[in-house]
Design a protein that fits this description.
alpha+beta, 20 helices, CRISPR-assoc_prot_Csd1-typ, Type I-C CRISPR-associated protein Cas8c/Csd1
Length: about 575
């Protein structure tokens, strides 16, 4: 299903010329420099720096070979060792072998071709002295980088000349070093790919690329078949799915999101405006990323912010914006993670745009909770959630499985992972930090997994024991702050964990201390009224409790935290603000 969907996406992209997706036999590669040749095969002028902001320029070139080991050259382009025979690693024999491989392939493909560009490169390869490489200008920057050629006075690169493209296609058609069989993707009988092109662009994977389909050890194989003949996929489908993956994973493509170690890519069955907006819907913080900022003008950013806010506001309130109301258009979401030379599939989800809009809106609706500070963003991104769960807010300290499970819950509308509540309560116990992100996450988990109804703001009518105890704890903490201002250690620092887990053992101490705090307020004429107010609040809250449980379950501890957060926020909310808003 994954490979079939990616193959179909490739076919769709081929029909969209602005996508610049390569045709069979070609691939997008990062190229650093261009060498200019005269018709006599001599280098003319300095190497042309093709880099943009220090990064290689993406060019469509003859398809890259897969180098697992040994020597294998690319046609008409490659790194400086293959193209110039430069001995960069003090291994002259290796450099010589690679240069010879580059020459051999070029002559093999362009045999008897009379094109001017072919003749020029052929003459260059026959007369070039590899020892002269380090005398080229920019050599220090060129070492190890990818090079292409251009004929002097020609606007095209050498590999873009029609005669060379024709020769390359003819060479590929004559490549009979493959076995035929039933392709698992198309069902047709065709030549089967023994090796699949590398997939690049997944952080943490090998920089040379990793494989989605790979059988590189004898223990993975069966029936005596070698390498990818164990999972027969035709050359056409192999090229299509790998090209589509590399296209989606390209850094300039906005159809991907990086959450934790999971790289999530997505695409639609048909052209859809959702593809441009989806990544920002899932991760609103992307709009502030350097990558987006560098590619967009201030006007673009402002317009996107306004559009995104309107869309998220509508979806979070249970409505479907007009831009996303394409009910029948299928949407594909694929989560990938690095695994050395391989790629692991974290999840694959297929849904209609309507279903996705509803599930993403449900997530934000359940996460919504009163802001701690007015300048906080309206929508909490998954990236912020994962940081709030990680030690020192470094997502590398999180289980790599958790990010994938969280994204799955957001996309599918299914329950959040069971470990999520324990993770957030664990960070609260360790750090004592109870903020909007953690409280919002607890609210969402309890609403979705436990089917609880929890409002955004303080709910004075809520009589659930955990929630009431959390409110009582917030009142006792407030009383302490008023009676003993500037104290070094508050009751939250000392007792929050025990009060939320074992209230029976903790609250009798807290209530006894509260009497001391009330007594201190009463002795000061300026705070006598305040002591009466606090005393009444405590009495009213305590009256809502039947008993103080010996222990609270993890869910009730979550309610305790929500009651505390709501009550604490209510202390700083103006009385004119409504106290209860339905979620």
């Amino acid at each position: 299903m994954i490979l079939q969907s990616l193959t179909a996406f490739y076919d769709r992209m081929v029909q969209e010329p602005e996508s610049h997706i390569p045709l069979p036999g070609f691939s997008n590669q990062g190229i650093h420099f261009c060498l200019t040749l005269s018709k006599e095969g001599q280098l003319t002028g300095d190497p042309i720096d093709l880099r943009v902001d220090g990064k290689p320029r993406q060019l469509i070139v003859p398809q890259a070979v897969k180098r697992s080991s040994g020597v294998a050259a690319n046609f008409c382009w490659d790194n400086t060792t293959y193209v110039l025979g430069a001995d960069e690693k003090n291994k002259p024999e290796q450099a010589k072998a690679r240069f010879e491989a580059f020459k051999t392939l070029f002559h093999l493909v362009t045999d008897k071709n009379e094109d001017t560009g072919v003749k020029a490169l052929s003459l260059f390869l026959e007369t070039w002295n590899p020892e002269a490489a380090n005398s080229l200008r920019f050599w220090d920057e060129m070492t190890g980088s990818n090079l292409v050629f251009r004929l002097e006075g020609d606007n095209l690169f050498l590999h873009q000349r029609p005669a060379i493209i024709k020769a390359w296609k003819k060479y590929l058609e004559q490549d009979n070093d493959t076995k035929s069989g039933h392709c698992l993707v198309s069902g047709e009988i065709e030549p089967i790919s023994r090796l699949h092109p590398a997939i690049k662009g997944i952080p943490g994977a090998q920089t040379s690329g990793a494989a989605l389909v790979s059988f590189n050890l004898p223990s993975f194989t069966s029936f005596g078949k070698e390498q990818n003949l164990n999972a027969p996929i035709g050359n056409t489908a192999t090229f299509a799915y790998t090209t589509a993956l590399n296209y989606l994973l390209d850094r300039s493509n906005r159809r991907k999101i990086q959450i934790g170690d999971a790289t999530t890519i997505f695409w639609a069955e048909k052209t859809s405006p959702v593809e441009d907006l989806f990544s920002f819907m899932v991760d609103p913080d992307l709009i502030h990323d350097e990558g987006y900022q560098s590619q967009s003008t201030e006007q673009d950013k402002k317009e996107l912010e306004q559009k995104l806010h309107a869309v998220l506001k509508a979806t979070a309130s249970g409505h479907r914006p007009k831009e996303l109301d394409q009910e029948d258009n299928l949407f594909f979401i694929l989560g990938l993670s690095p695994n050395a030379a391989r790629i692991s599939v974290r999840f694959f989800h297929v849904a209609t745009v309507r279903q996705l809009t509803d599930t993403i809106g449900l997530h934000y609706r359940q996460m919504e909770i009163v802001k701690q500070y007015d300048n906080e963003p309206d929508f909490i991104s998954p990236r912020r959630i994962l940081k709030a769960l990680a030690v020192r807010e470094d997502t590398k300290n999180l289980s790599p499985i958790l990010s994938g499970q969280l994204m799955q819950a957001i996309f599918t509308g299914n329950s959040y992972p069971r470990s999520l509540l324990a993770a957030v309560m664990g960070r609260i116990r360790a750090e004592g930090k109870i903020d909007r992100i953690r409280s919002g996450l607890i609210k969402a988990i309890l609403m979705r997994n436990q089917k609880m109804e929890i409002p955004i703001m303080l709910d004075p009518e809520n009589t659930q024991t955990g929630y009431v105890l959390g409110r009582l704890f917030a009142i006792l903490e407030k009383l302490q702050e008023e009676a003993v201002p500037g104290t070094n250690a508050t009751i939250r620092d000392k007792f929050f964990s025990s009060a939320s887990a074992t209230p029976q053992r903790t609250f009798h101490v807290l209530l006894k201390n509260a009497q001391n705090h009330l007594s201190k307020l009463r002795k000061d004429p300026s705070s006598t009224g305040l002591s009466i107010t606090r005393d009444k609040m405590i009495t009213d809250i305590v009256a809502m409790l039947d008993t103080y449980p010996a222990i609270l379950s993890i869910e009730d501890q979550g309610l305790f935290t929500l009651g505390y957060y709501h009550q604490k926020k209510a202390f700083f909310t103006k009385k004119s603000t409504p106290e209860t808003v339905e979620a």
